[in-house]
Amino acid sequence: MIPRTLAASLRKAASGFPVVTVTGPRQSGKTTLVRSEFRDYAYVSLELPDQRAFAMEDPRGFLAQFNGPVILDEAQRAPDLFSYLQAEVDEKQVPGQFILTGSQNFLLLERISQSLAGRCAVLHLLPFSLAELTGRAPVSLDGFGAWAARKLHTPPFGLFELLHAGLYPRIHDQHLAPREWLAAYYQTYVERDVRNVLHVGDLETFGRFVRLCAGRSGQLLNLSGLAADCGVTHTTARRWLSVLEASFVILLLRPHHENFGKRLIKTPKLHFLDTGLLCFLLGIRTAAEIEVHSSRGAVFESFVVSELYKNFLHRGEQPGLYFWRSAAGHEVDVLVELGSRRIPVEIKSAQTVAGDFLAGLSYWRDLAGDQSGRAALVYGGDRYFRQGGAVVYPWFAL
């Protein structure tokens, strides 16, 4: 098993909370992680029809069968169980009594807020980060954008190979063909999770909606245009987007609110959280196609945003990620917010750094009155260096 960064936060949470919930997309490794970290816990999967029926028909009897702590996998499948979990927790007051996992974040968090508020720590596990896949610690965001070059070995795979495969664990653990696995994964997601939650009658229209979102990855969200192109109402498009975001398929990167006296764009940017799934939806069949594809820059930008997002989530922290763009078109791809400190990050898929790559960073730093502050450029090349007051990171440094 490839070690997961979230493991330390998971153990810490279980030592202080009676219930710990790990959410994330299907096949992100939640079950593998919790079972490896809590080997002496009983384990029940509520995906199994007989266990789910037992939990729903006789919740007291279901919980009484366990003499110690237990892992309840896909806990959202038995929603009525949560009220009984609350009673058990309040009676025993034992840290780490229940470890819950769930892939339907929108259903799970609703039940937690209703029954387990204040009793449950919630952690999120996404597919592998690049650091996890290559067996090293993630880049420290506390030092990000400072002159702190690290000695890193070039990975045994290329950038476009990684972007095409994505980072779902099963693809890498079992050396599966990415396109075939992702096709089956997507079909399962649409046919099962979306139908269960949204009760979508026309799955073909929803599938078209998801593909239209893929074509807009890395762009400002135009909800009205997206709805019109798909042939659905504005309200339906908003609801479908919220489900895609809650199920960790997409991330809506919000604009930073500090305007420095300038008019700002207030619309979020849409990013896919796994580039393998994004490439599949874009119809990119091979890694070589990405290099010449019109969406190459958008795919790479989503990759970098996703890696920064995982850096926060897998340490048990809420992501402090935004973008910044003025009405005049000046833009910073990502602002990493660490308390009172903000680190502007530019993202370019090119393997050579051109002089104008740093223009957005320089403009933002002028407005912020922070020309000597930290700034970073992540690019598709393989060297560390400093240029124009920013630290330039190769793609595999994250």
Number of beta-strand segments: 14
Low-confidence stretches: none
Task: Please tell me how large the radius of gyration is.
Answer: 22 Å
Task: State the separation between the terminal residues, measured CA to CA.
Answer: 21 Å
What is the total number of structural domains?
Answer: 2
Number of helices in the DSSP assignment: 17
The description of the largest β-sheet is: 6 strands, mixed
**Mean pLDDT across all amino acids:** 89
Name the structural class.
alpha/beta
Indicate the overall shape: globular
The helix content is 40-55%
Strands in their spatial order, largest beta sheet: 9-10-11-12-14-13
The amount of beta strand, in percent, is 15-25%
Polypeptide structure, described:
- The chain has helices at 6-14, 30-37, 49-57, 59-64, 81-92, 105-115, 130-133, 159-165, 169-173, 178-198, 203-215, 223-230, 234-246, 275-282, 287-292, 296-313, 359-368; strands at residues 19-23, 42-45, 70-73, 98-102, 120-124, 219-220, 250-253, 269-272, 321-325, 331-338, 341-348, 376-379, 385-387, 390-394.
- It is α/β, with parallel strands linked by helices.
- It folds into 2 domains: 6-124, Rossmann fold, CATH 3.40.50; 130-397, no CATH class.
- It has a 6-stranded mixed beta sheet with strand order 9-10-11-12-14-13, with helices on both faces.
- Helix 17 links the parallel strand 11 (341-348) and strand 12.
- Helix 5 (81-92) crosses helix 6.
- It is globular, with a radius of gyration of 22 Å.
- The two termini are 21 Å apart.
